[in-house]
Input
Amino acid sequence: MGRFFVSQAVLLCLAALLTSCGQSEDNQTVDTVSEEENSTSMFAMNTYVTVTAYGNDTEAALSSAEEKIRSLESLWSVTDENSEIYAVNHSGGNPVEVSDETAQLLDFSLQMNERTNGAFDISLYPVLTAWGFTTEEYRVPDDDEITQLLERTGVEKISLDGQTVHVPDDMQIDLGAIGKGYAGDLVAEDLKQNGVKSALIDLGGNIQTVGTKPGGESWSIGIRNPFGEGNFGVLEIGECAVVTSGGYERYFVEDGNTYWHILDPETGKPAQSGIISVLVIGAEGRLCDALSTSLFVMGLDRAANLWRNSDDFEMIIVTSDGGIYITEGIEDDFTLSKNFSQPEVSVIRR
Ligand code: ADP
Ligand code: MG
Output
């Protein structure tokens, strides 16, 4: 099983690949050369974040983006004793007033629970803790322990009234499966408000873009091979979000079994759906992030059904047996790497 796992999710190919996007090639070349590139990197939200902006005088916009990321991290961290999520988790069952951003994200998280028939569940934190995923002191809890912990989950017991959140005393929430996606949305908005027309935000492999590359070229996103080194393909994108979840991102092995950090809320155990990685692309980072995690839980057939009933995302799914499945909306934007050993790509159609 070992060869299936590598540590990185998505690598960016920042090298310009020419595409046929509207303008003449001459224009593209001239614009590309004349645009200044500035970037800022930081460790935030438990990952490496890089924001790259193109154009003149983007320094102030990048500082603002950096500040935005820090402020969102300080709202949503589960471990920071000053965060809003910490306050909610240690409220003793009392209502807690949160910021508009946190309330919006909680509201959206509850909606995503319904939309995914429970696969997306922000109330799994006590179970994740028992598995050691919150501290990296990994262990396999026995079935009785998991059954007891599952009694302390269930988003239907959470209530949100405007900006007032009520989480019962024995429950705890975490926004790890959605916070980076929403941060991408909010940082993109902030960059635009500060006049940036072209930018790429990379939150540990969660990608969010503003506009196109200078000159109208599309962005080229390399998609990490979940079975080994390198990329298995490249996706050409415009302004959107691209988020990947994989069993190879955080996991431990005990007695020959591999346990990863995405749990099936029904069993309280790492999701065994036959999927090894899911990439979701769409306009909204928060949607893509929530879906990347929950489609991983749902498996190929349920994921395909959800996609058929939706019009706000496309996806690429890699199954543990090496199958690659791509939805028809991005068929023309995806190129399989020549050296990837699995030549068959199945297109999921409506
Ligand atoms: P990452 O943040 O590692 O890129 P994900 O977006 O898939 O990957 O989020 C995984 C995190 O989400 C886990 O570490 C855990 O905190 C939380 N989580 C695990 N299972 C679920 C689930 N079924 N629904 C919602 N959140 C989950
Ligand atoms: Mg996610």
